[in-house]
UniProtKB/TrEMBL annotation:
Keywords: Membrane, Signal, Transmembrane, Transmembrane helix. Residues 1-19 form the signal peptide. It comes from the Bacteria. This is Copper resistance protein CopC. It comes from Cupriavidus campinensis.
């Protein structure tokens, strides 16, 4: 009986262990983002843009637009300078996370506009050292796409799965116990 309860607790711990939204790993990767595999399909809106000097990839999360920038020819990450964005009349400045290496846009007006379904033409202005560049890209937000709601749903799904595992293991334990008492 004790072994079955121990197994049930281990199953619960395994099922519920996952990264919190916005968590970052040691190399700056977003731990709450889906794993990058050939078959993985992201539900979060992504923007890509490049010029001869730089390239960027941005992901719209529930609480930020996170942008990674690197040099086009060497793939060396850009971890200094400033990155601004324009969406129509909305202009926003990013905050550089030196430890992570991403530029984070958290301006409420920008995020509210980007969460609206549709194609959003963005113009990024990068200034780093003696280099400056403009990069244009399009962020496509599908109807019903909301990173924050997506991760809330995932948490609930993990909780329900863990609860079902505990109930199943408890039922098995009771059944084993009942059979032993009959013998």
């Amino acid at each position: 009986m004790n072994r079955i309860l121990t197994i049930a607790l281990l199953c619960c711990a395994t099922l519920t262990a996952h990264a919190a939204p916005g968590a970052h790993g040691p190399n700056g990767e977003h731990l709450d983002a889906p794993a990058a595999t050939a078959s993985a399909v992201t539900t979060l809106p992504v923007i890509e843009a490049n010029t001869e000097g730089f390239e960027l990839v941005g992901t719209l999360h529930g609480d930020e637009l996170s942008v990674l920038v690197d040099r086009y020819d060497t793939n060396a990450p850009v971890t200094t300078g400033t990155l601004d964005v324009e969406l129509g009349t909305i202009k926003a400045q990013s905050k550089l996370h030196h430890d992570i290496g991403d530029f984070s846009f958290t301006d409420p007006k920008l995020l509210a506009a980007l969460r609206q379904p549709g194609d959003h033409a963005l113009v990024f202005t990068l200034v780093t050292g003696n280099d400056a560049d403009l990069m244009e890209g399009k962020l496509v937000v599908a109807p019903g796409t909301d990173g924050h709601r997506h991760w809330q749903f995932k948490r609930v799904a993990w909780f329900v799965a863990a609860l079902l595992a505990v109930l199943l293991l408890t039922a098995i334990a009771w059944r084993v116990r009942a059979r032993r008492s009959i013998s």
